[in-house]
Amino acid sequence: MDSDSRGSGRRRARGIRRMPVEPGALKDLKDAIYRLYVDAGRPTLDVIAADVAGLADELDLPGAPGRDTINRIIGDARLPPGRADTIATAVVLAHAAGRRDTAALATDIGALWTRAAGTPVDSRFGQPVRQCDPLALEVHPAIQLDRPLPPLPPYVERRHDHELAKVVGDAASGRSRIAMLVGASSTGKTRACWEAIQRLPARWRVWHPFDPTRPDAADQQLAQVPGYTVVWFNEAQHYLLTPDPRLGERVAARLRTLLRDPARGPVLVLGTIWPYYWDSLTGPPPANDLDLHAQARELLNGADIAVPDVWAPEEVRQLAATSDERLRDAATNAEAGRITQYLAGVPELMQRYRNAPPPVRAVLTAAVDARRLGHPLSLPHDLLARAAPSYLADVEWNQLTDDWWQEALAYTARPCHGIAGPLVRIRPRPTEPGTASAIRYRLADYLQQRGAAERAAVFPPAGFWDAVATSVSDPVTLRTIGDHAERRGRYRRAAALYALAVEGGDDEARWALAALREQAGDQDGAAALRHDRATAVDEAGQLAASAESRERDGDLPGAIDLYQQAADRGDAQSWYRVVSLLEQTANPAGALVAALRAADRGLVSALRVLAVTRDRLGDPAGAEQVARLAADRGDATIFGTLGATREGRGDVDTARGLYQRGADHGDAYALWSLADLLRRSGLGDRADRLQEEIDRGTPSALMTLAALRERMGDRPAARHLYQRAADRGSVAALLSLAALHERDGDVDAAEKWYRRAIAQGDVTGLWSLAGLRHQAGDLVGAVDLYRRAAGHGITAALVSLAELAGEQGDQAQAESWALLATDHGDRDGLPLLIRLRLRAGDHAAAARMERFGLEDDGSPASAIG
């Protein structure tokens, strides 16, 4: 087909609308791209995207933009989000228009993009680093004493500051970098970031996205962030761990694109986050392949810098020599080295909580319970107003004045030595729609943490659960709080909240409620809840079985059709068979479409299946194309897999390239394999340099490499890497060393490493060490360590104490520990309590607990409502 007929066939009545652009370099770029779009016959976005995917190898495209990115490149008035994607779009349009000078065109478009990217910075992207206010960037002001003092005391550097300085130095020298400071509330994370950026040259700016909301601002504007910008992600969970996971994943993906595009750099992404949220974002994906944080996991891999809760003794000693009396006061009075928390006014905040009048304490305790049981940060007025009275004794309730509620809120809102009070009203911005009449409150972070720890074993009163049922409308929040009730064995409370969530359209709550009803013997109720989804699941299973039969009989087209139907009804394995069979039957385009559809539904591993299949069928270029698509969706490990396959076939050069691609995407296995291959290939100098790069890695990178070596059976190498990570301050590495020695049967060495981890503040080592003492027959020592671990909130230690008491014949103590574990939310607590009742011969109570769970007071229930 010639260019005219090709363009004419793709024309549509209304093309992409062109947005006006001010004269300058950006307008020149936009004019050039739009001319190519018109010359190509104004093809649809779907057609352009299909050409980008289909012609990637033929045209040697540098990028792989999707439909939305192409739309922004052609029609948006802003700078296109990436140089490579802009060039790829332009080349595909030129090819569609019949031009043959695509190589020269790519150079011209790239130059235009670079010129446009170098235009003066939009004031929307922050202020010059020298003009920024640390308090505006959410650095907590320190406590104030009797006389006026600056908001911030002099800064004392600690070990994590040296790690952060290296990252900032890299950015200053022209390399885009990211660092995420991980630590508990009020440990100095934000102040450390503020001090670090003072090292940057004056041309740098600091951009703190928060309007209209933090994640929306980042999602809408990250594509335009220019070079020499610090992206300030204080409390990064608000950007990456969003109620709708897709929004957080988009933000993470945009950050990854920004960091990897040299034409837009250098940029520096600085963030702070609590360990709990870090674990939620970076932990292993669930076994069911519903990976909600794949982009965030890749973004954050190796970016963590730990900020300890407590100051080391030598760091505290530095404070005694300072001229600032606040620092000297903190050195003298801070509890257990918690210097930063003391400076932030936390002691006053906690004192106000503990000494509050009964109505105030009731309001704060209701807020603590709501947050620890899963309610989001913004607490509704109605929830607190309805729940608080149930935390008051009758005599306290009867003594309240008519304006007790207003007095309580005034008390909680009063600042504590320059920081916000325990509970403050959230003032919505005018740009936030629908919030003007919704009164909401925020509980102080540190009070949330400490209060949750103090009330971990307390099941909230009935009024709290009634208040949640009547005041909370969000179905996800209802399901989340219901799940906390179920984990604590209170099935009646869980069922009531699940039912409300189902009414709100939450399918996960439907399955949870059906399981509870079935367990309680209500088969009809469970069947009614499961009917619609169960029908789809049954149909999917039957279709998959029929597809397998067709496949065995050699009817591959019929098998593909049935597998596709089963996949559309939710059967994950059928997606893999569709992809593999389409590729095997010489339909690579269909296989790619199917794999991308599966990936869009959360099954990124379908792309891995396709890449491996193409490689096995002798299509290495196609396999690498799919690997790139998988990497763009968060799974870069496929490069290492393909590299190992090629190396096994003797194709060392290709293997080296694939390992390098994987390493460039942050895959530690590929990096290690590349270094090993270079060394075995006689390229010792390059291998040594690469090994030095590995050794300069963060503790988390060393831990990742150590775990890989351990899985590969190379325990000496794993032990060496764990040791290096431990030397760089990783307490987790100490625990890994202990566990490695324990698996090797070296109990003495394991105990030594566990004790070192405990000495450095990791309380999980207490439970592990207790297990060693238990196995050795030292029951007294085991009980002491289990109790200490339980005192630090390790619920598994409560279960261990219950089991140990049961072994010793102390039924009452065993049940007490098991109930305490249940009230903490440990899912092993109630099953153990049931087994203990059976062992005691109380079969009726055991049966009731198994079917209906517990009443609020911990006694066996008789129904779930």
What does this structure look like?
- By secondary structure, the chain is mainly alpha-helical.
- Among the domains are: 3-117, no CATH class; 127-309, Rossmann fold; 314-344, no CATH class; 345-458; 763-865, Alpha Horseshoe (Serine Threonine Protein Phosphatase 5, Tetratricopeptide repeat), CATH 1.25.40.10.
- Helices cover 61% and strands 4% of the residues.
- The longest helix is centred in the middle third of the chain and has 30 residues, at 523-552.
CATH class membership of the domain at 127-309 = Alpha Beta
Strand composition percent: under 5%
What are the low-pLDDT stretches, counting only 5+ consecutive residues below 50? Answer: 1-13, 431-436
- Please report the number of helical segments: 46
Please give the CATH architecture of the domain at 127-309: 3-Layer(aba) Sandwich
Mean pLDDT: 83
Which key features would you list for this structure?
single chain, 865 residues, mainly alpha, Rossmann fold, 6-stranded mixed sheet, 3-stranded antiparallel sheet, 46 helices, 9 strands, 61% helix, 4% strand, disordered N terminus
